[in-house]
Amino acid sequence: MKDTEAKPSYGLLFILMTGAFVALLSNTLLNIALPSIMKDFDVSAATVQWLSTGYMLVNGIMVPTTAFLIKKYNARRLFLIAMGLFSIGTLLGGFAPAFPVLLAARMIQASGAAIIMPLLMNVMFTTFPPEKRGTSMGMFGLVMFFAPAIGPTLSGWIIQHYEWSTLFFVIAPISILVLILAFFKLHDTKEKVTATLDFLSLVFSTLGFGGVLYGFSSAGNKGWDDPIVIITLAVGVVSLICFIFRQFKLDEPMLDLRVYKYPMFALSSVISFTLNMAMFSAMLLMPIYLQSIRGISPIDSGLLMLPGAIVMGIMSPITGKIFDKFGAKALAITGLVITVVTTYFFSQLTATTEYSNLVILYTVRMFGISMVMMPVMTNGLNQLPAKFTPHGTAMNSTIQQVSGAVGGSLLVTIMSNRSVTHGKELLEEAISKLSAPPTKEVLVQMKQQIMAQATIEGINDAFLVSAGVAVIGVILAFFIKRTSSEKKSEKITVKEPNKNEPLSQIQ
Which residue among 102, 267, 294, 418 has the highest number of C-beta atoms inside a 10 angstrom radius? Predict the structure, then answer.
């Protein structure tokens, strides 16, 4: 095989991206269906929530191992295994006769999805030359943000017309088709690497990331003083500290944390963390506001978010091309300022805010976010030498999981606590204005109205904190510097097939 770069095979990248799309889509597709599943299997809200929590936990536990897997195995084998697991889990979920089977199916799905995303990011990053990486990562961003964003809309429509199992049967044929196409079309060669997985690192990683993710996710519902939350967070933090120290002692670490000695990658991680927290505020708080307070149907709630998803899908490749020409700094500052302003406006919600205003505000907000995430991430990865790329992509995926859990739990906690505070204040104020003690019926009605208003105020406070977090991202964006890749000696070739050699070589 010649040592010259050829054009990437876009057909193969399309197969990989389609697999990633359905994997990400499944992450949010089931959320709106949870009430229907509760009813069919006669399980509690806390139990059914494990369909989402379990999926996230398996993702969080698996992702740190992907750097080792990408290093040891070729892309074809990893992708086939990942899509195979995802397809099996999807089919099992559709035919699940009982809740434990459905939960197992979701976890099998997650084990495949966790491998697909870092693998695709690594393949795209090593396949495209530095001057085209912004465009390629923009394509990746289209998948990364568009799929989860349309999940609630698609799910709402399906649940309104069909059984919840249809959600699995819609995804299954696509995932199986991708698996078949990948089996016949995806071929890559790679030098045999004798890498071994450190058992202690795996244990510390599982307990660390699993404990932190579960602890923060549970804190929003159970409260920070719950013994389970305290214990899991403590185990998670101690295990993560042990994991970090362990990695620095190993010659071949499972997840090489030396990626953080590169300043632009470290900066990109912090900015991504703040942006994810800000992004999750709307994804979590808007459904509560729309459905619980305003009484808007799930499908209309999903439709509110659809224009924003479409804008993000359109903008991701465009921002990628802008990044290739001008770098990440101007894009990040502009996008984060838009995010801060729109998030602040979301902190001014009332019981009569127009639906159309919410659609416009959410769409503009997603437009701003689309200008930040992939350019900042690509700029950070560009600074890493080739040997650190798998570790960088795995770390980025891990940060998304952790920041989502941390941001979600903090914002839900702020909303809950502030709602209680506002409720007490509003009730005292309402009673003080009465000329006579209220009757029982009047008091009940008054409490219902006050509870709704207090929840809105709590949501507004959470959005305000989210805006403050995004401000940190704006400040950090001013320190971004354009990076150049250090991968000069390690060229990647992806070529059209002939009779004598494989289609692609991904080192």
Answer: 102
